[in-house]
Amino acid sequence: MAFWRHPLSGSLLLFLACWLFFGALINARDMQDFNLQHIGIEAIVERHHLWLEGSPTPQLQTRGDVFQYNDHTYAAKQPGQFLFGAAAYSVVSAFGLSYRADYVRTAAWVTFGSASLLLALGITAIQRTSQRWLGDYGLQPLSYLTALAAAGGTTLLAYSGLPHHDLIAAALLVCAASGAYAASQERQRGWAQVRALLAGLCLGLTLTTSMLPFFSAVVVAVYAVAILTWSERAALLTGGIAGLLPLLLYNYASFGNPLLMANVAGNFNDTFWHFDLQNVQEKAGFYLRMTLQHAPLVMLGFIGLVLLPRHLSREKLMLGGASVALVAYLLGIETVGHCQFGPRYLLPVIPLLLLGLNGLWLSRLRGLGYALTLMLGSYGLLINLGGTLGGSMYCTWWEFGGARRWESLIHGSVPELPLQFLLWPAAGMGLLLAAWVWRYSRTAQS
């Protein structure tokens, strides 16, 4: 019966429920539309090089977001998504699956073993950090509401079935912030240096996967340095270097310069920051509209962030600063990401902003917070479930994607879900999680 009393048991059940649920929603349409991620994975594992051309698999031919450099084709992306996917594909291929023999099913398993896994870890990091914040107030069960709101009520759900760089970066960034905080709070239990090392590793891997949250990662790094001891800072730095090393080696091997990033090598100048007042106004309107349409829970998280108590002021500054840093970057570039479901470029900071919901639980607005979270979370679940089932490659993004995707689904345009059988164990884990939270709450009260 110790299982029902140990706080880590609930976190484990949450992780398994989310991972299986995300896997069950992986659809064949996304595997076809987002083939670029799988081209890089296959090139590393099967052809043992970093460029993209030359695959014998018909589905693994480039269609966009690539450029020519030294007579080879490269993705205008950071290599992290390919590296995580390659690790998963190495395991999947050991069971006899291959892209060429069964592209869709193989791509689904690779996604399940990379992006879906990492996102489930990120959701668990949200729950663990929330539990630490709420523990002194006897509100630990609400940490699961915070985590499930992030998992199901935002555009994280719409991208949960993709080995996508921004989604992976979102998971890694919240794990880094969570790890640094845990290291500072639980020194008496030991392992602080290990937690700091892992936090640094996640920070480095965030940038290896996506440069979009570069300034957000800097904010988290500054926060980590501020709250850690000297020995923990050394571990943080060691982990950060280890996480950045794959990026530096990739850049050197591909472009001859470890500091030359892919978007710079390919001269994708629509990602270069510049100040233009008209562009700022247009982008602000765009992201506000997309957020309200697809994930209004993010706005509620920001309000809750302001309400976090004084003893969490450093965490409030970190979460708010990381979010503002990303928004400031987005308001100064030309591109908005184009084919996307919801505000894709905001993905890296959505988990951080959803931690703000804890501010509502710790304020006098708790009752109103429950009601708004359930209402906006249910709305977000409906909208983003349409995105993940109908496909996240939504190119008429100026029209409301939620309505369009459900219209197509209702009229029978439902793609294949290769791993849909995972829904049954996911439901089982969900029921166990609900029972555990109920039992743990009663045990804690008694």
Overall mean pLDDT: 91
List unreliable stretches of 5+ residues.
none
- Sketch the topology as an H/E string, one letter per element: HHHEEHHHHHHHHHHHHHHHHHH
Give the strand line-up of the largest sheet.
1-2
Q: Assess the beta-strand content as a share of residues.
A: under 5%
Structural class comes to: mainly alpha
Secondary structure tally, helices: 21
Shape: globular
Number of strands: 2
Helix coverage percent = 55-70%
Main beta sheet: strand number and arrangement?
A: 2 strands, antiparallel
Rg computed from alpha carbons, rounded to a whole number of angstroms: 21 Å
Distance between the termini: 16 Å
Descriptors:
single chain, 446 residues, mainly alpha, two-stranded antiparallel ribbon, 21 helices, 2 strands, 65% helix
What is the topological layout?
Blueprint: H1 7-24, H2 28-33, H3 35-46, E1 66-69, E2 72-75, H4 80-93, H5 103-112, H6 115-134, H7 142-152, H8 155-158, H9 165-185, H10 192-209, H11 214-227, H12 230-255, H13 262-265, H14 277-294, H15 297-306, H16 313-330, H17 350-354, H18 357-361, H19 366-390, H20 401-410, H21 423-445
Antiparallel strand pairs: 1-2
